[in-house]
């Protein structure tokens, strides 16, 4: 089995660091829309280094900040906390934005993963998955008890898959929204 390493660069002007992370073996490098002077150039630089490019948006950043660079994006990350540190509370108020990101991706017709990061755990992953997230970054929920890491990963995957299936049933009309949650 091979696992892709992803680097999420929560830094200002990440351009000077890109090659270091790609050389270190990261197949996907994520930069922040707010932190790049020329986001288009930075995403092109990531791809030029041979990696996949991701872009993250902080809670206060609207999706219009990335809609004109989607042709250079392999992954869109909607932050569900403000960057800074682990253990913060999941912002459920971001779920409409996750759904909006899902629509934006569908309208683009491109293969773009939709990730969420911040406060993801047993109590929150279903809401993010139902809104349309397909990739989940979890810190505290997984590392609180390292001995149970595999079990927790399996449970989070199960909850996300169940919520996504429910959302799909609502979409195709075989389940009512009020019965799904
Ligand atoms: O780096 C950040 C936020 O600054 C996130 O990646 C968190 O570290 C994720 O941790 P939890 O919110 O899951 O504890």
TrEMBL record:
Superkingdom of origin organism: Bacteria
Entry-linked InterPro entries: Aldolase_TIM, Ribul_P_3_epim-like, RibuloseP-bd_barrel
UniProt-listed SUPFAM superfamilies: Ribulose-phoshate binding barrel (SSF51366)
A Pfam family per the record: Ribul_P_3_epim
GO molecular function: D-ribulose-phosphate 3-epimerase activity; metal ion binding
Keywords (A to Z) from UniProt: Isomerase, Metal-binding
Keyword Metal-binding in annotation: yes
Gene3D superfamilies in UniProt: Aldolase class I
GO BP of this protein: carbohydrate metabolic process
Its EC number(s): 5.1.3.1
Protein name: Ribulose-phosphate 3-epimerase
């Amino acid at each position: 089995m091979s696992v892709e390493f992803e680097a999420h660069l929560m830094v200002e002007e990440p351009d000077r660091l890109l090659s270091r992370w790609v050389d270190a073996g990261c197949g996907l490098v994520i930069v922040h829309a707010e932190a790049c002077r020329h986001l288009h150039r930075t995403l092109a630089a990531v791809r030029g280094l041979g990696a996949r490019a991701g872009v993250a948006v902080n809670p206060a950043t609207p999706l219009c900040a990335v809609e004109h660079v989607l042709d250079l994006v392999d992954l869109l990350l909607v932050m569900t906390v403000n960057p800074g540190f682990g253990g913060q509370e999941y912002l459920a108020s971001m779920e409409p934005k996750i759904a909006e990101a899902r629509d934006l991706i569908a309208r683009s017709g491109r293969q773009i993963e939709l990730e969420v990061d911040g406060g993801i755990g047993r109590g929150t992953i279903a809401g993010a998955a139902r809104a349309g997230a397909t990739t989940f970054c979890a810190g505290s929920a997984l590392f609180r008890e390292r001995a149970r890491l595999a079990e927790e990963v399996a449970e989070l995957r199960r909850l996300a898959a169940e919520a996504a299936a429910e959302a799909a049933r609502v979409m195709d009309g075989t389940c009512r929204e009020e019965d799904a949650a």
